[in-house]
Design brief:
Belongs to the prokaryotic molybdopterin-containing oxidoreductase family. NasA/NapA/NarB subfamily. The chain has 904 residues and is α/β, with parallel strands linked by helices. The protein is built from 30 helices and 36 strands. The chain binds ligand MGD (2 copies), iron/sulfur cluster and molybdenum atom.
């Protein structure tokens, strides 16, 4: 047998969310990569969600940045690495010489590997001597970090995933776990199925997919969480549930926190009024929490991304400290981290106000420890600028050079037009990315091609402190290089010693050693300690199994992890006690008024990752939500003069965009929800970051992404349309367009203001059709304003275009099916002209199950025709929901809706 013919699976870690699932990637002989869950990985035990399952479809080299580029005379041109690195190092040296170290900045990302992050931080804080390095984790986890530090004395997540299964009650606050941490959510749902007495409470202004499995949903008004949790603290005190022994032995500040909560929140009815929820639901929640010892309260961006984010975090932690429900199995507050390496970034001190290895920038003894260990010429001695301030400093000229790595701030920052202005003015903008065209790259003076997932090597740490390897299984494409290497090469060119590493394992080794360096000498040992992994050679590093820090080596040298912290009641404050923090509820920074009467909430959808540079490549992931939408209550829509399915202009004091109006997202009156994923690459005008106000939390500096006063009004157009095309098109002449990837084509949704005199000529021009003899099918009803055209090549469909004055256009799912055919039959041609399939059942509807490509119509028809009663029956019948399970909440909703329709 030829052993070399057997494909070898590489065990690695998913590059998306903070669940940190283990992945088995198997390069196949045809060049494709088979992706499967790693059954031996503690986070996911073999399961993957839809984004993880589709990883193999995102690895193609189309659109990749493969060579360094330099801006010259306005345009970018290809350059050698030497030239590019010289330009960066020389530029930085000159700017620092003239304006000092604070005139340069790094803006990095929780999607870097720990080793990349370690080097970036070392360069900036130890060698350049400035702390002007911040990261997109500022936009994500910084309120949790600040809350942890206030409560525990260090940024420590007490529990682990298993606690969510062991709990008798799980409270999800500001977290759409079903869509954003799907595998963790499935673990909760499975635990609940096994123990139906386990309760799930969801606290979210929207009725999200996560709510489909909840026993209780509290649709609190945006921004009112401190009211709710302060009210809970009062209730616990009023009902004798406070664990006085624990509070006395292990905490400080309880009385002050309770007194502060009492001011506004002693009466659950007042709390219910402030949160705009049914008082009975508030009381139910409080009673359930009071009666259940094993409670986990898990939270995410609905908590963190707020001008009161840090107080929200502490108001939650207070309730766990008051009841002593922390540090034991099945209980505790739990921050769900967003990015794959949000936690690793915190370990290396990637934020502007931190030092490496969980040490503090404002403690002289820590600065000395780090500088001595690094043997570095300098050490930053005061905090650098946090993300929002950092881009303001670029705009006003205090910062003259910025190097952006693995993040797309022109899309993801609040007041994103300000970021655009800042980068336009900045003397030297360096961007390291894996794709060539992003909104941010458009402002780069130097573009550096990075290795992407599957190519790069290193470690990441997930939400439960589990360090795991990402392993490369693909060759470096073009001239792409690892981010840590590019950083070291610039550092060396700037004349700094301390950046010579034979490989990424040596970077990890240094990081591990630093965590143990002088680690008990300063009175309170630092909890973050992974020194047990120091000294690994390349082979041992490659074999590293997932481990939860802090780590210990047993006498035989075996390394053991720690699933839970604080079991001994000791915290990281100098006195070993945790802090209850007094918090007072306050309103968001900017309130709706007559001009901007609604509140804009922003967040994620199930099948896309952030600015879509990777998930956007997968056709399987494209269909679930094909374009930007503004979800709103039907009555608000009526008042704004907009209708479901039509386009609306959504604007705030900071910026504007266009999105399709949608109901059904379970939104209360007064608020709207817009997804974050669209950029200038995927739509003419759908970058929601431009609308978001730049207010930040005073402690953490995290932006208020979930609350901006907004106005929604009609976006007037004279026609709607769409194109499916095998070739890429330029649609800049159209008032509104959005692009999404199909299996063998690109799909463009369009809307226009222009009057079209000659449909045929106009369509051919839009489709860039030059061949006058092309096989062209056309239907025109001028009086109705309806037009349909298709371009065929050798009997196969090449492009099609549909126009109507209203958005009631033919089914894209049916047409997408035609692109998969070798040739079109007569019935298909007739269908194209009719604008609907001739065959029954050919229109499967928008995709619900992305894994098996099962559409909404197919599911609803099966529910009706076969009387299906449960998601399990739908799966048995259609496979839908049977792979990753991400769509099960939606199938449950369809079951409900279809039955409601029947009885109506
Ligand atoms: N599919 C997908 N998954 C992802 C990502 C992705 O891009 N796509 N990104 C990852 C990253 S980096 C992150 S940070 C996480 C984010 O994960 P989540 O935080 O779960 O996601 P979001 O959609 O940003 O926001 C969560 C919810 O907060 C609610 N919310 C808004 N305001 C409030 C409030 O005042 N109080 C409460 N209680 N709730 C509120 C919103 O309605 C929303 O449903 O997801 C990770 N996972
Ligand atoms: N309105 C609104 N805005 C938000 C949020 C919100 O809820 N609402 N959430 C915020 C949050 S929590 C987050 S985490 C951010 C995320 O926002 P971003 O970090 O800006 O989003 P990404 O699309 O993940 O950007 C990652 C970039 O790095 C590139 N990349 C991928 N891998 C690598 C690599 O290995 N090396 C390098 N050099 N580049 C790589 C990708 O192509 C992409 O361009 O968005 C924030 N912005
Ligand atoms: S839940 Fe999905 S996106 Fe998150 S790590 Fe697991 S497979 Fe990746
Ligand atoms: Mo995030």
């Amino acid at each position: 047998m030829n052993l070399s013919a057997i494909p070898l699976a590489v065990r690695t870690t998913c590059p998306y969310c903070g669940v940190g699932c283990g992945v088995q990637a198997t390069p196949l002989p045809d060049g494709s990569i088979a992706i499967a869950g790693d059954a031996s990985h503690g986070a996911n035990a073999g399961r993957l969600c839809v984004k993880g399952s589709a990883l193999g479809e995102t690895l193609g080299l189309d659109g990749r940045l493969l060579h360094p580029q330099l801006r010259e005379g306005g345009a970018l041109r290809r350059a050698s690495w030497d030239e590019a690195l010289d330009k960066v190092a020389g530029g930085w040296r000159d700017i620092i010489a003239e304006h000092g170290p604070d005139a340069v900045a790094l803006y990095v990302s929780g999607q870097l590997l720990t080793e990349d992050y370690y080097i970036a931080n070392k360069l900036m804080k130890g060698y350049i001597g400035s702390a002007n390095i911040d990261t997109n984790s500022r936009l994500c986890m910084s309120s949790a970090v600040a809350g942890h530090k206030r409560a525990f004395g260090a940024d420590l997540v007490p529990g682990c995933y298993e606690d969510l299964e062991l709990a008798d009650m799980v409270v999800l606050v500001g977290s759409n776990t079903a869509w954003c941490h799907p595998i963790l959510f499935q673990r909760i749902v499975r635990a609940k199925e096994a123990r139906p007495q386990m309760k799930l409470v969801v606290i979210d202004p929207r009725r999200t997919a996560t709510c489909e499995s909840a026993d209780l949903h509290l649709p609190v008004k945006l921004g009112t969480d401190v009211w709710l949790f302060n009210g809970l603290l009062c209730y616990l005190a009023q009902h004798g549930v406070v664990d006085a022994g624990f509070v006395a032995a292990h905490t400080n500040g309880f009385d002050e926190a309770l007194a502060a909560a009492h001011v506004d929140c002693a009466d659950p009815l007042a709390v219910a009024r402030a949160c705009r929820v049914d008082p009975r639901d508030v009381l139910d929640f409080y009673a359930m929490f009071a009666a259940t010892a094993k409670v986990v309260t898990a939270f995410s961006q609905g908590v963190n991304q707020s001008s009161a984010g840090t107080d929200k975090v502490n108001s939650i932690i207070n309730c766990h400290l008051a009841t002593g429900r922390i540090g034991r199995p099945g209980m505790g507050p739990f921050s769900l981290t967003g990015q794959p390496n949000a936690m690793g970034g915190r370990e290396v001190g990637g934020l502007a106000n931190m030092l490496a290895a969980h040490m503090e920038l404002d403690r002289a003894v820590h600065r000395d420890t780090v500088q001595t260990f690094w043997d570095s010429p300098r050490i930053a001695d005061r905090p650098g600028l946090k993300a929002v301030e950092l881009f303001q400093a670029i705009e006003d000229g205090r910062i003259k050079a910025v190097w952006i790595i693995a993040t797309n701030p022109l899309v993801s920052m609040p007041d994103a037009n300000q970021v655009q202005r800042a980068l336009e003015k900045c003397q030297l903008v360096v961007v390291s990315d894996i794709v060539e065209k992003t909104d941010t790259n458009a402002y780069a003076d130097v573009l550096l091609p990075a290795l992407g997932w599957g190519e790069k090597d290193g470690t990441v740490t997930n939400s439960e402190r589990r360090i795991a390897r990402q392993r490369g299984f693909l060759a470096a494409p073009g001239e792409a290089r690892a981010d840590w290497l590019a950083l070291c090469q610039v550092a060396r060119r700037m004349g700094f010693a301390g950046f010579d590493f034979a490989g990424v394992h040596e970077v990890f080794d240094e990081h591990a050693r630093l965590s143990g360096y002088r680690n008990d000498a300063q009175g309170s040992p630092r909890v973050f300690n992974i020194a047990a992994l120091a000294g690994m050679d390349r082979r041992r590093y490659d074999q590293l199994e997932p481990l939860q820090w802090p780590l210990r080596a047993d006498p035989a040298g075996a390394v053991e992890g720690t699933p839970r912290l604080f079991g001994d009641g000791r915290y990281a404050h100098a006195d070993g006690r945790a802090r209850c923090v007094a918090t007072a509820p306050r309103a968001p920074a900017h309130l709706p008024d007559a001009d901007y009467p609604l509140a804009l909430n922003t967040g994620r959808v199930r099948d896309q990752w952030h600015t879509m540079t990777r998930t956007g490549k997968s056709a399987r992931l494209a269909d679930h939500v094909p374009e930007a939408f503004v979800d709103m209550h039907p009555q608000d829509a009526l008042l704004c003069g907009v209708r479901e399915g039509e386009l609306a202009r959504v604007s705030t004091q900071w910026g504007a965009m266009v999105a399709r109006v949608q109901h059904g997202g379970g939104i209360a009156r007064g608020a709207v929800f817009v997804p974050i994923h669209w950029s200038g690459q995927t739509a003419s005008d759908a970058r929601v970051g431009a609308l978001v106000n730049p207010a930040v939390d005073p402690v953490s500096g995290e932006p208020e992404f979930k609350h901006t006063p907004v106005r929604v009004e009609q976006f007037r157009v004279s026609w709607h349309g769409f194109i499916l095309s095998r070739s890429e098109l330029n649609l800049d002449s159209v008032a509104h367009w959005t692009r999404i990837q199909g299996r063998d084509f690109a799909r463009y949704e369009l809307a226009g203001r222009n009057a079209i005199a000659d449909y045929g000529a106009w369509a051919r021009q839009l489709l860039a059709l030059v061949d006058g003899e092309a096989d062209w099918l056309e239907y025109e009803d001028r009086s109705a304003g309806v037009y349909r055209a298709a371009h065929l090549v050798d009997g196969r469909i090449e492009q099609c275009l549909f126009l109507s004055p209203r958005p009631d256009l033919p089914s894209r799912a049916w047409l997408a099916g035609l692109f998969g055919r070798a040739g079109l039959g007569d019935a298909d041609r007739v269908g194209l002209l009719l604008g609907q399939p001739v065959e029954k059942g050919a229109d499967t509807g928008p995709t619900v199950c992305s894994c098996f490509g099962v559409g909404r119509n197919t599911i609803c028809e099966a529910i009706r025709a076969q009387g299906l009663r449960s998601a399990a029956e739908v799966t048995a019948c259609l496979k839908a929901g049977g792979n990753c399970g991400s769509c099960v909440p939606e199938i449950k909703k369809l079951l409900l809706d279809t039955r409601v329709e029947e009885t109506a």
